[in-house]
Design the sequence.
């Protein structure tokens, strides 16, 4: 092939990739649309009081905490007010260097408790267990730092007494009925082994006593873009895959799992930055390959609110970590990819993750670089460069607007014309600059994963502005 | 736009694709705005309807005379939702007057109309209302809904049938309750608690001889609705005849008579830990002094849950006082057994 032919082929390849990736997302959004409509219809009686039988499956709420002294008391108080017939809260103090343990002991009258701690999953040494004199369903596992959230969660699973556990970030803001909503799939389908719900951005919202009291939008552009981004990721990313029983990520911020199945699969991996995603992908792999019936569900209801980074530095760290977690999740479970028993997760979700999530920053970046360099050198026609950017912008815009449509057809959480306008504006603007920036961070994440840099517990620093609104 | 390459046609296709994507985005943007405007209008109407009817419902619930109000065309669905919310929230004494008010304003007719509608949301609302206000002739169509594949619709229909005519519904629904794994036992138990328990006992008793496998397990779990002395005979039979761990575990939940201690003791040695854990839990209700060595032995079980349950049972036994428990803690040589006992004492009998 001549140089000119290679150049033309490269141009076509980049454009075709852009169209393929966005078409895949559009197919997902159509699947999500069907699932979402069905979900909304089927929850018509949600406003009616719930009937309790006493036979509801109890849940252990696991809260890993690392240097959370500032927010832990409010978080635990809000968790104690969750509406569910029977649950316990297990806070895992993962060797915090601040006063997390002291705050818990003082706020909740915690006293040392002679727990018969069992070690089903490996984790760092447990220094002691505390139980609240005020709330018998509240315990604290005080352990040495195990280098990551996975280790803390494994310690929590060891201490969990109930068949289901709910992993919650210490700074997650929940709704009173969050547990009920996320546990619903376990009642509707006994094969369910894991279930997650939609996570939204708390910046700009009002929070009192650890619960969301008023939904708002952030005033700054960076978190506002993330509002649209989260909506897109949850409303059609995960919901679309849920229709195919191929959800590959249940957010570490809030997700419910069947404890024994997680233990059977080996628990969370401490050598992985994306421990939440890796666990879900592994659950698929283990169950698919063993031909063990299972279902991993996703409920679209907004059940958890989390603070988004407001600075580029923190956003960058977060996205680099996510991208590395994605790469680790794929390659630690690569056997699922095109495995004869892989089903939709192995034949659709894994190739999608690999081709469109892991590789996309590389192709996107190479595409931009190639086009701009080609333009500068005069080997790519300006019309082709224009077309390249037009394709990227048009499909990006289409996806953002589709997300808003899904939101409008379902939960319409953000009320008022001002908020709608802000969202529309963000949906337009995020395609110019923000998405490219995130692509850059993801590229760095892929690079660091390739280089095999050390993994470590590095929770995203939070401003905890919602706490100040009390 | 002109392309001076051999790939002109392809590039042109890409151009059209991006133009189409832009155009579609604009259409969807417009749709979002239209939907928002319609939502605002719908919510405004709903607010006004709720504001009009809420005081009337409150007065009707209290049995106060309420002038015959007419339901306007667009009010039906919202009023139905509001009536259901109020009806399900208030206590027993207000229910009859709310039902009477509902019939007077024609909610039963509105619900019957919605029941034939296409959307699941409307049908659910209608089914729930007809469970309260429906008449005998609606039993058959609601029963058909109870046999639909959708677990949400079918379960709502089953609940409505139990409210409409429990005597007729129970024998028809029980086979479905035993068969449908997508009908959660927890929800069924909550529903059955509101029925006539004597009648339920008769229906469950009739189903026991033929029940097998998962159906027998579900039947034993549903039997938990009844008082323990009414279900022990079924538990005994399952414990004598069944070899299935899930059925045995379900049957052990129902055991409460000290005369059943021998059979419970037998299951303390069952190979399945799920059965052993239920057996040590049942010992709490049936154990005698002579069972102490067995429970102490269970404290050293290879499964953590059995150890902890055995410890809790020991601590809860009425004839075990603190001094005895302390002595037991000193004599137990197994470390895991000691740990379990210490935890149970701390939980159940804090100093």
Sequence:
């Amino acid at each position: 092939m001549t140089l000119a032919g290679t150049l033309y082929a490269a141009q076509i390849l980049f454009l075709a990739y852009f169209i393929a990736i966005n078409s895949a997302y559009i197919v997902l959004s159509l699947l999500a649309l069907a699932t979402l409509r069905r979900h909304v219809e089927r929850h018509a009686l949600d406003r009616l009081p719930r009937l309790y039988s006493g036979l509801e499956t109890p849940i252990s709420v696991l809260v890993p905490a690392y240097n959370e002294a500032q927010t832990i008391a409010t978080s635990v108080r809000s968790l104690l007010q969750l509406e569910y017939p029977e649950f316990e809260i297990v806070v895992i103090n993962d060797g915090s260097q601040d006063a997390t343990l002291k705050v818990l002991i003082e706020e909740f009258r915690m006293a040392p408790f002679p727990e018969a701690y069992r070690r089903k999953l490996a984790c760092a040494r447990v220094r002691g267990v505390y139980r609240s004199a005020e709330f018998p369903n509240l315990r604290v596992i005080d352990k040495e730092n195990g280098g990551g959230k996975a280790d803390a969660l494994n310690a929590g699973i060891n201490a969990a007494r109930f068949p289901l556990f709910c992993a919650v970030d210490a700074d997650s803001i929940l709704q009173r009925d969050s547990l009920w909503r996320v546990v619903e799939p376990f009642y509707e389908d006994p094969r369910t082994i894991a279930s997650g719900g939609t996570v939204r951005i708390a910046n700009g919202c009002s929070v009192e006593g650890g619960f969301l009291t008023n939904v708002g939008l952030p005033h700054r552009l960076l978190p506002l873009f993330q509002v649209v981004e989260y909506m897109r990721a949850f409303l059609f990313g995960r919901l679309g895959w849920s229709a195919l029983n191929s959800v590959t990520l249940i957010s570490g911020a809030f997700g419910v799992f069947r404890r024994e199945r997680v233990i059977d699969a080996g628990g969370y991996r401490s050598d992985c930055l994306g421990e939440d995603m890796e666990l879900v992908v592994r659950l698929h792999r283990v169950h698919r390959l063993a031909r063990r019936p299972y279902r991993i569900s996703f409920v679209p209801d907004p059940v958890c609110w989390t603070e988004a980074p407001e600075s580029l530095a923190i956003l960058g760290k977060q996205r680099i970590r996510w991208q590395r977690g994605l790469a680790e999740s794929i390659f630690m479970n690569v056997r699922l990819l095109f495995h004869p028993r892989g089903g939709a997760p192995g034949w659709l979700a894994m190739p999608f993750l690999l081709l469109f999530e892991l590789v996309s920053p590389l192709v996107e970046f190479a595409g931009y670089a190639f086009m701009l360099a080609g333009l500068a050198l005069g080997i790519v026609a300006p019309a082709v460069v224009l077309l390249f950017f037009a394709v990227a912008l048009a499909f990006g815009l289409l996806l953002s607007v589709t997300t808003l449509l899904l939101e409008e057809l379902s939960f319409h959480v953000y009320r008022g014309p001002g908020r709608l306008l802000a969202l529309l504006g963000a949906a337009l603007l995020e395609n110019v600059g923000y998405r490219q920036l995130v692509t850059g961070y993801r590229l760095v994440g892929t690079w660091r994963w390739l280089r095999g840099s050390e993994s470590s517990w590095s929770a995203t620093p939070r401003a905890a502005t919602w706490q100040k609104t009390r | 736009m002109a392309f001076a390459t051999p790939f002109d046609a392809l590039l042109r296709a890409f151009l059209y694709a991006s133009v189409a994507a832009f155009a579609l985005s604009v259409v969807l943007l417009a749709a979002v705005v239209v939907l928002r405007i319609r939502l605002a209008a719908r919510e405004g109407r709903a607010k006004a309807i709720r504001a009009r009817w809420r005081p009337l419902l409150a007065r009707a619930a209290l049995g106060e005379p309420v002038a015959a109000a007419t339901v306007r065309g667009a009010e039906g669905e919202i009023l139905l939702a509001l009536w259901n919310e109020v009806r399900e929230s208030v206590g027993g004494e207000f229910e009859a007057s709310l039902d009477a008010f509902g019939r007077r304003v024609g909610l039963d007719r509105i619900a019957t109309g919605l029941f034939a509608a296409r959307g699941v949301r409307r049908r659910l609302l209608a089914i729930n209302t007809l469970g309260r206000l429906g008449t005998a002739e609606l039993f058959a169509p609601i029963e058909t809904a109870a046999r639909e594949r959708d677990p949400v619709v079918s379960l709502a229909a089953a609940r409505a049938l139990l409210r409409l005519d429990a005597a007729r519904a129970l024998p028809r629904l029980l086979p479905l309750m035993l068969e449908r794994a997508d009908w959660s036992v927890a929800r069924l138990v909550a529903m059955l608690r509101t029925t006539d328990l004597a009648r339920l006992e008769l229906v469950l008793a009739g189903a026991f001889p033929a029940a097998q496998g998962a159906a027998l397990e579900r039947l034993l779990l549903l039997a938990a609705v009844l008082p323990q002395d009414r279900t022990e005979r079924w538990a005994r039979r399952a414990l004598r005849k069944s070899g299935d761990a899930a059925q045995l575990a379900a049957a052990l939940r129902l055991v409460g008579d000290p005369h059943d201690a021998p059979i419970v003791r037998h299951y303390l040695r069952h190979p399945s830990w799920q059965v052993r854990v239920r057996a040590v839990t049942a010992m709490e209700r049936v154990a005698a002094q002579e069972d102490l060595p067995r429970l102490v032995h269970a404290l050293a079980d290879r499964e953590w849950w059995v150890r902890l349950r055995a410890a809790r049972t020991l601590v809860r036994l009425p004839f075990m006082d603190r001094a005895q428990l302390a002595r037991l803690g000193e004599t137990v040589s197994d470390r895991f057994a000691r740990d379990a006992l210490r935890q149970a004492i701390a939980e159940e009998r804090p100093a």
